[in-house]
Design goal:
Length: 96
């Protein structure tokens, strides 16, 4: 009885551990932007809720921009309008 309980517990723990590893791997790569995901048109600053740089392991350097309505887009961080948005954001946060 003890051996079967120990085996069952070991199996359960192994399943939980591998499941959690898979979730973290998928979520880190889902933060990447791929070539066909980029948006080229300017997004109004008033529509942007937040933005986040993609992780270094991603194949394309990008910024994921989240709008107020919850939609997310990939933006090239070198885009002029995004550079201006970042400078504006930094200057307003520095003055408050």
């Amino acid at each position: 009885m003890k051996v079967s309980s120990l085996a069952l517990l070991t199996l359960l723990l192994a399943t939980l551990w591998t499941g959690s590893q898979g979730v973290s791997l998928r979520s880190s790569y889902s933060a990447c932007c791929y070539k066909n995901m980029f948006i080229r048109k300017k997004i109004l600053a008033s529509n942007i809720q937040s933005y986040q740089k993609t992780p270094s392991h991603c194949s394309h350097r990008a910024v994921r921009v989240e709008l107020l309505n919850g939609k997310k887009f990939c933006v090239d961080p070198e885009e002029r309008w995004f550079q201006r948005y970042q400078r504006q954001k930094k200057s307003t946060s520095a003055s408050t």
